[in-house]
Write a structure and sequence with these properties.
With 300 residues, the protein is mainly α. It has 13 helices and two strands; from the N terminus they run ααββααααααααααα.
Length: 300
């Protein structure tokens, strides 16, 4: 007697493929998209950074480390990278200081007011970066809203210089980066045990003590993830430093733009971009390892 299998071809194929193979096949479309949209441009930029450049002949075909030597051997670029990471660290610190209390209040609100507050927090992300930055230029200008108000009140005698300064860039970037920190911390607080706060209050702890001893440790995973996002986005930001900082306050992203669009030295611009990517990744990995080690030590 001949037995005829009633299984469908798809079912038979699924039994033949190993679970690991099936997972790779299911992930293949996203992996291909990731490679085409991110890895291929990065690889092309890396190759371009090794090409030579001549102002009369353009981009050469010979490969060398001359562009990296020019960047790493010039104090001018060290100043640019120092300013870039200084601004990113300041923005991250401001966002952490504002994001944790905001996320705590957001977590304690009723569902109706929480939904409204989420829209308020996400408001900066719903506006074009150029429009938002131009709005900050109007606020921070010598005759802008802030200086005019302070002069009318009598708190200052002359306008405070905020445009074309690193402080102005920090303010404008913190405005749009706070939502990332708030959402990351809020997600961490939602996974926390709410009874811990009630237990601390029942033992006589005040609101500040509860916030410092209970809320902040529970929010640390969100602060870590939010800090990584805020730092990376702030260090690589272009539009806000270009408008608020202008030509006087140059960061790594605007330096790359100048090399590509003004001097047309694409290989040198590519080298600056690759150094920026590697530096951001190194800082993020180091920060992640440090925080994870302290968390593991605290739970030990």
């Amino acid at each position: 007697m001949t037995l005829v299998s009633t299984d469908r071809p798809e079912a038979a194929a699924s039994r033949v493929l190993a679970p690991q193979t099936r997972r790779w096949l299911l992930s293949a479309p996203m992996l291909v998209l990731f490679a085409v949209m991110l890895l291929v441009p990065l690889l092309m930029t890396l190759i371009l950074s090794f090409n030579s450049f001549d102002f009369y002949g353009g981009i050469g075909s010979d490969l060398s480390l001359a562009n990296y030597a020019d960047v790493l051997g010039d104090s001018y670029f060290y100043e640019i990278f120092g300013r870039t990471f200084g601004i990113a660290l300041a923005v991250t610190a401001i966002c952490a200081a504002l994001g944790v209390p905001l996320a705590w209040f957001l977590n304690r609100m009723t569902p109706f007011w929480r939904s409204i507050m989420v829209l308020v927090v996400l408001g900066p992300l719903l506006i074009s970066v150029v429009v938002r930055t131009l709005g900050w230029a109007i606020i921070l200008g010598s005759k802008g809203v802030l200086n005019t108000a302070l002069l009318n009140i009598g708190l200052i005698e002359r306008p405070i210089k905020l445009m074309y300064t690193s402080g102005g860039i920090v303010l404008a970037l913190a405005h749009v980066m706070v939502p990332y920190m708030v959402l990351a911390v809020w997600a961490a607080l939602q996974r926390a045990d709410p009874s811990a706060e009630a237990a601390a209050e029942s033992l006589g702890a005040g609101p500040f003590t509860v916030f410092r001893r209970i809320v902040v440790p529970q929010a640390m995973p969100g602060v870590l993830s939010g800090s990584l996002i805020v730092f990376a986005l702030s260090a690589s930001a272009f539009a806000t430093p270009a408008i608020i900082g202008g030509r006087r306050v140059k960061v790594a992203a605007t330096a790359v733009h100048d090399e590509f669009m003004n001097t047309l030295n694409w290989p040198l611009g590519a080298a600056i971009a690759m150094i920026l990517v590697v530096a951001i990744m190194a800082v993020m990995l180091s920060w992640s390892r440090l925080v994870e080690a302290r968390v593991a030590k605290a739970h030990a």
